[in-house]
């Protein structure tokens, strides 16, 4: 089966079908009226007990599947008479009839034991003391089947973000009753491209903000979050993290060495044995439950995780039912809201409801209730730019043709390689660590999610950002799959970051939904994909190498996938820079453990990007014919 587009009319029809379910609108009163809550301490094989809340339908005329979610973020509210105001992956599930189970993972909130961030999976276990998230999931399901009444013997599992990691871990060596699992924006590899690092560069604002709230260790079961809240003292995250200075100051000023995983972050600056043990992707073998991995094209946190879990399962579990859903969403945006726009960019419809009613509920209903037919394709993916859903038999599409966008002199970008008579063979810029390129022209406390579609004009007007632009397109160009920059560069330092952004440049008079051209989108430079390679990791994340100052070398890396159409009348742009702050920490320009850098280690560096016939720089993409 090839590419199949779902028209807007079909989308509306599918949402309407989903919406015809007789839905009891959820809310605290509705949940209380239709569900009974129980709380349990479930023993694991090593004797540790995990706190678990169970919500069972009061209607007992039929049996129900169990839907399990395991989380480090609390199953609150606590108390058998204290109810959640909504249950399940979406509002549709409670009316459909499921037993909902929420569990605090070990060492968090009311569960016993010791917490470990992204606890490593143990492929070999020699006894009951050898535990991981797979065994905890297995033991939980086994106990639930024996002690919770009125179930039908089938279990489903889902989770978003960190709970998505627990869903992925739970499907390894799964309990036979676990029939369907949906890791959604799952954390999978915290060094390669998830959350804290992208190709070795550190996501300073996201990491600091998350650990400031969630990184403090629990010393005993508690309903109270440990640690001391940190007040940035400003809404200007750019200025706060600039004032923070070298990363070592975070511990000296705020965390005081009391946060175990932050300490580990600072100690392990390569993808060494520590980070390799915390990578779940190599363990997704022999998967038995049906899997539906979900992600968002604009997920600033775990876009990589969704694609990596899907591809890892596909490669290592060839017999598994393994499908992918990718929509125009921010982190978790498919589970709430409409998903119809992000910032100034619109997606022409309630794309989140399309997923909830037409994909997510039918997936679990089929595998846990034998309800309906399984008509979901291998990949349900949303094409941005043209704003259409596609049903594909593979991701990336089998019909994608490898192409390259070449950098040229005078800021030109073309599918044709450079000739030998274009003039200057390189462009150069100087990066000043005291004045890094802002992530966004707006004022935000941290990693603002909308940055992934934000206008790049302000960045392109800086002298430390190189800009290359195509001619106006005379036909649509649809890019599908990973974006792979391959640059010929040199630097005056011994290390430097290279950030490459793929951008959709709108026409000067761009109409809004009502046809008006007096809006913010005229000449808008929409970020389609952008990412970084910390230069010392250009050949290996495990074994960094310094640059030889002034010596040209290749920097090639893979950015996460896109499915985007540059429309006729638009232009394609590529921007290149070495800072993007405070999304990524600032590279001092020296080959060293940057986590141990002092203020004296930071220096200005000058980078050259070559675009000659002998040393071409390009961006590899896949294009649909």
Number of strands: 27
The whole-angstrom Rg is 25 Å
So what's the overall shape? globular
Q: Biggest sheet, in brief?
A: 11 strands, mixed
State the end-to-end distance: 16 Å
Strand content: 25-35%
**If helices are DSSP runs of H or I spanning 4 or more residues, what is the number of helices?**
13
What would the average pLDDT be, to the nearest integer?
94
The stretches of 5 or more residues where confidence is low (pLDDT under 50) are 1-24
Helix content: 10-25%
- Secondary-structure-based class equals alpha+beta
Biggest sheet, spatial arrangement of strands: 1-15-14-11-10-7-6-4-5-3-2
Fold topology:
Blueprint lengths: L3 E3 L1 H12 L8 H7 E9 L5 E9 L6 E8 L19 H6 L2 E6 L28 H15 L3 E10 L1 H9 L7 E7 L12 E2 L2 E2 L1 H11 L22 H8 L3 H8 L4 H8 L5 H5 L12 E7 L6 H14 L5 E6 L13 E2 L2 E2 L4 H19 L9 E5 L4 E5 L8 E7 L5 E2 L11 E6 L25 H4 L5 E4 L7 E15 L5 E9 L19 E10 L18 E4 L2 E8 L4 E7 L27 E6 L7 E6 L2
Task: Describe what you observe in this structure.
By secondary structure, the chain is of the alpha+beta class. Helices cover about 20% and strands about 25% of the residues. It has helices spanning about 10-20, 30-35, 90-95, 135-145, 160-170, 205-215, 235-245, 250-255, 260-265, 275, 305-315, 350-370, 455-460, and strands at about 5, 35-45, 50-55, 65-70, 100-105, 150-160, 180-185, 195-200, 200, 290-295, 320-325, 340, 345, 380-385, 390, 400-405, 415, 425-430, 465-470, 475-490, 495-505, 525-535, 555, 560-565, 570-575, 605-610, 620-625. The strands form five sheets. An eleven-stranded mixed β-sheet has the order 1-15-14-11-10-7-6-4-5-3-2, sandwiched between helices. A hairpin with a 2-residue loop joins strand 12 (about 340) and strand 13 (about 345). Helix 1 (about 10-20) packs across helix 12. The model is unreliable at about 1-25 (pLDDT under 50).
């Amino acid at each position: 089966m090839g590419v199949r587009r779902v028209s807007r009319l079909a989308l509306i029809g599918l949402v309407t079908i989903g919406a015809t379910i007789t839905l009891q609108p959820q809310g605290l009163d509705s949940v209380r009226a239709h569900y009974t809550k129980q709380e349990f301490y479930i023993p694991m094989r090593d004797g540790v007990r995990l706190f678990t809340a169970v919500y069972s339908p009061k209607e007992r005329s039929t049996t129900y599947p169990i839907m399990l979610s395991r989380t480090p973020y609390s199953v609150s509210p606590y108390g058998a008479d204290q109810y959640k105001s909504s249950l399940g992956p979406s509002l549709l599930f409670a009316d459909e009839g499921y037993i909902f189970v929420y569990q605090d993972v070990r060492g968090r909130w009311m569960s016993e034991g010791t917490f470990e961030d992204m606890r490593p999976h143990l492929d070999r276990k020699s006894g009951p003391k050898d535990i991981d998230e797979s065994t905890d999931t297995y033991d939980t399901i086994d106990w639930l089947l024996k002690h919770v009444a009125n179930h039908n013997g089938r279990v489903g599992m889902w989770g978003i973000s960190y709970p998505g990691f627990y869903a992925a871990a739970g499907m390894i060596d799964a309990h036979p009753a676990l029939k369907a699992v949906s890791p959604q924006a799952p954390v999978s590899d915290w060094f390669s491209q998830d959350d804290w690092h992208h190709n070795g560069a550190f996501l300073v604002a996201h990491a600091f903000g998350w650990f400031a709230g969630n990184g403090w260790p629990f010393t005993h079961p508690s309903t109270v979050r440990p640690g001391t809240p940190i007040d940035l003292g400003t809404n200007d995250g750019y200025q706060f993290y600039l004032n923070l200075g070298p990363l070592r100051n975070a511990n000296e000023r705020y965390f005081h060495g009391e946060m175990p995983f932050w300490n580990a972050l600072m100690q392990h600056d390569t993808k060494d044995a520590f980070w390799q043990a915390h990578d779940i992707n190599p363990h997704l073998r022999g998967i038995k439950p049906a899997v539906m991995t979900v992600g968002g094209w604009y997920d600033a946190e775990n876009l990589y995780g969704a694609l990596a879990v899907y591809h890892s399962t596909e490669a290592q579990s060839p017999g598994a039912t393994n499908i992918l859903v990718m929509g125009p969403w921010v982190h978790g945006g498919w589970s709430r809201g409409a998903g119809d726009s992000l910032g100034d960019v619109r997606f022409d419809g309630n794309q989140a409801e399309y997923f909830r009613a037409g994909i997510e509920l039918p997936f679990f209903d089929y595998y846990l209730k034998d309800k309906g037919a399984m008509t979901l394709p291998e990949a349900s993916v949303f094409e941005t730019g043209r704003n259409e859903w596609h049903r594909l038999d593979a991701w990336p599409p089998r019909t994608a043709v490898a192409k390259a966008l070449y950098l040229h002199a005078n800021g030109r970008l073309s599918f044709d390689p450079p000739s030998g008579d274009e003039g200057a063979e390189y462009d150069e810029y100087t990066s000043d660590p005291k004045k890094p390129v802002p992530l966004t022209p707006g004022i935000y406390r941290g990693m603002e999610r909308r940055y992934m579609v934000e206008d790049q004009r302000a960045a392109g007007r800086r002298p430390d950002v190189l800009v290359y632009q195509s001619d106006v397109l005379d036909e649509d160009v649809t890019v599908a799959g990973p974006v792979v920059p391959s640059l010929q560069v040199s630097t005056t330092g011994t290390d430097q970051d290279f950030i490459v952004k793929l951008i959709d440049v709108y026409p000067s008079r761009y109409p809004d939904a009502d046809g008006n051209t007096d809006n913010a989108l005229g000449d808008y430079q929409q970020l389609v994909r952008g990412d970084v390679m910390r230069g010392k990791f250009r050949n290996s994340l495990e074994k960094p190498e310094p640059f030889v100052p002034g010596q040209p070398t290749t920097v090639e890396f893979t950015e996460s996938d896109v499915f985007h159409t540059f429309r006729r009348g638009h232009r394609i742009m590529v921007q290149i820079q070495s800072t993007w702050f405070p999304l990524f920490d600032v590279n001092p320009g020296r080959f060293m453990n940057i986590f141990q850098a002092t203020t004296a280690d930071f220096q200005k560096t000058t980078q050259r990007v070559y675009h000659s016939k002998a040393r071409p720089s390009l961006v590899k993409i896949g294009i649909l014919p």
